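Troubleshooting log. The previous structure file for this entry was overwritten by mistake, so regenerating from the original sequence record. Sequence copied from the archived sheet and checked twice against the printout by T.R.
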Amino acid sequence: MSKTEVVAMLLAGGQGSRLGVLTKSIAKPAVPYGGNYRIIDFPLSNCVNSGIYTVGVLTQYQPLVLNDYLGNGHPWDLDRLNGGVHVLSPYEAIGGAEWYKGTANAIYQNIAFIEKYDPKYVVVLSGDHIYKMNYANMIDFHKKNNADCTIAVLEVPWEEASRFGILATDENEQIYEFAEKPKEPKSNKASMGVYVFSWDKLKKYLIEDEADPNSANDFGKNIIPNMLNDGQRMFAYPFKGYWKDVGTIDSLWEANLDIINPNVDLDLSDKSWRIYSRTPDAPPHYIGENATVENSSISEGCDIDGLVDYSVVSSDVTVEEGAEVRFSVIMPGAVIKKGAKVYYSIIAENAVIEEDAQVGEIPENMENSADWGVAVVGSGATITKNKKIPAKEMIASGEEV
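Regenerated output below.
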């Protein structure tokens, strides 16, 4: 692949309202994940590992943290004179300013950016999924089938199929039917929100879609069905690896704990497919003489003197003597003080759990623990001494309870 043969457009402007207090002041792709990462690290790393070095990141909701994190793209080898990473926010053009109205409109508003590189193919990605994928293989599949559009698909449990865009394909993986979140799905082949388009065709459909006053300006609702109805060559690219849409509190919690689950196929130490990130400038973590750490991930700059069990602990976290952290996700800079208990919870950045407070609960039935409910403490919030926060409770960012 040449440097300009493929341009990737990464949709990163989502509000992520289902993540509640965790996205009050940051866009969902900027939410910390896995100790040393943020969610957007995965599609960005997939791009560079796939040989795609021209990436447009489309931002909108609360972009400050995300913009600062991306910087000039150096951690992902995207600080390049030709190509590299470009942050693309809505801007004021002739006729006035306009927010991105939908996923298709976001790409439409950046046609000039894409045209600058004159690509043959455009890869459209979501900024809020955890997965490792070689887009170059998908592009080769697209070329071999002389496709106009190729959609990455994953077989999901039938009971979850109604949450996704569902495709029906023939024996050659050519798509003959597509339904966005059908009530009665006819297939369990779900769209992953990863698309490869031949640019000349996509540009045509984006322009036509923008001219339609009744359109929702969305890929799943408009662009994909319109191309299919017109008989364009559309194919499904089967994907077999780990993939998680971290759009809810429970799914984000599960995805974090998946990195320490030996039964889950998500290896972040794989040197052949690194996930790059803007790593914190912090000293090595310190495990004190009173600490007990079992089956957990501990990041740089942590000071651990309590018990940490089956948890993911991000950089610069303090767990004081006598504190307990079990089955939880602790984000950067949080402090868990003496005697505090954190169970089945997500503790956001710079939150403080004071002495002898308790956040979350240990499920009575461990086999159904995922249904018990995850407690969440927002960034900068404080849980005061002896306070108890029950399962499923959500404490707002900056609040003192």
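The first strand starts at residue 6 and ends at 11. Archived copy saved in two places this time.
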